[in-house]
Amino acid sequence: MLYYIFRPIIHLAFKVYFRKIYLSNKDRIPKEGAVIFAYNHPTAFLDPMLMAVFQMRIVHFMLRGDLFDKKMVIRVLNSFKTIPIFRFRDGFESLRKNEATFERCYKMLADGKHIVIMAEGQTWHEKKLHPIQKGTARMAVGSYEKFGNDKITILPVGINYTDSVAFRSEIMVDFGEPILLGNYLDDLKDNSRRAIKKITDEISRQLREKVVHINLDEDAPYVNTLLDMRRNDRGDSSFPVVSASEIPMKDEVKISRKVNELPEDKKTKIFKAISDYQTLIETNNIADAAVKLNTGILSADFFKSILLGLPALLGFVIYCIPFYIAKYIADKNVTARMEFYSSVRLAALAILVSLFSLFVIVLLHIVAVLKWYQSILLLPFLGMSAVFFEEYFRKWRNQLRFMRLKDPVKKEMLAKREELMKFMR
Length: 425
Description:
Blueprint: H1 2-17, E1 20-24, E2 34-39, H2 46-53, E3 59-64, H3 71-79, E4 82-85, H4 92-96, H5 98-110, E5 114-118, H6 135-147, E6 152-161, E7 170-175, E8 179-180, H7 185-190, H8 192-208, H9 220-234, E9 242-243, H10 247-260, H11 264-283, H12 288-293, H13 300-333, H14 341-366, H15 372-404, H16 407-424
Parallel strand pairs: 1-7, 1-9, 2-5, 2-6, 3-4, 3-5
Antiparallel strand pairs: 6-7, 6-8
C-alpha cells in the first residue's frame, strides 16, 4: 500500500528537487515479460526510487538485508516492495538467508515480475563505473534453471548525476539495449558459467557507454569544471523538467573519456588552463554561466525575476520551514557517507512539504480565504515560483557582476573560456 501512496509524491518531489531529468531510450523497456533493471549505483535510495516513479511498471528493489531487523521495519519495507540481500559484512548466518532471497526472486521472474538490481554490487559516490558483478546474470539464469522461463530481459540502465548532493542539479538516465536470456540458451546448455560471463560482459559493455567515468580521482575536479561549462554552453531550458534527449549524457561521457585518454603532457596543459580560468572567475566572484551568456543588464532572467517576485515571496513564506527542516535533517544525519545525502533530503522534503501543504489547505479553507481546490492549484505554483525566482535572480546577479567588470578582464575570461570549449568540441 505504501508503494502506491508514496509513488506520486516521490515523482513530484523528483521534479522539484532536480532541475532537469533526462530519460533517454525509455521505449526500450519491454512491454511484456519479466525485466531485471541492472543499473550503476552512484547514490543510495535515489537510484531505485527513480526507476520506480518514472515508468509505469511496478518494480521490486534489492535492499541491504541488515535494514530488515525489526518486525515493524520489515512490514514497512515489504510494503515498499523491497527484497533483502545480505553482504559478507553481515555475517555467515545472514548470508545463508540469501538462498531464500534468490528463490523468491527466481519465482518472481518466472511470474513475469520486475526487479531492480545494482549491477556494481554496492553504492559508489563518484563518477566512475566499477566492475559489474555476476549477480544480475546469475539471477536470470537461476530463474531459468529453476522454472524453465527464458522470457526474461536484462535491461542495463546508466544513471548519471551532475551533482548528486546539490539541490536543483540534473539527472541523466539512459536505457540500454535489452539483453534477452533466450539468446543465450545454447551457452546455458553447454556451460552456465560461460553464459553468465557473457551476459555480465554485455551489461558491462553497455554501461561503459552510458556512465560518466573518470579514471583518476584527482582528475575529477577538472572534469567536473569542464562538464559544468558544457552544460552552460548547451543552456537547456528547465521546461519540460523531464526530457527524452540523450545528447547531455553522450556529451558528458565523451568529455570524460577524452580526458581519460589524454597523454600526461596534454592533460597537464589543459588542467592548467582550467585552473587559470577557475581562478579568474572566482577572484571576480563570477559564475561561468554569466561568462557564457555575456548579456546586458536587462536580460531575460531579469524580467523573469520581476514577474515571479510576488508569487515567489508568498511561496517562500509558505514553504521555507519544510524546505529548511528537510535540509537540516540531511545535514545533521548524513556526514560520512554522502551517497545518502540527497536520498534523505528528498524523502524528508517530500513528506514535510506534503504534510505542510495539507495543513495550509485546511487552514485557508477554515478561514474562508480559499476553497480547498483553489489552494491545491495555487500552492504548487507559489512553491515553484520561489524555486525558479532564486535561480533566475542568481543568474541575473552574476550577469550584472560580469557586465561591471573592466573590458580587459571580460576579454580575458571570454578568451580562456573559448580555449576550453574548443577542447571539448
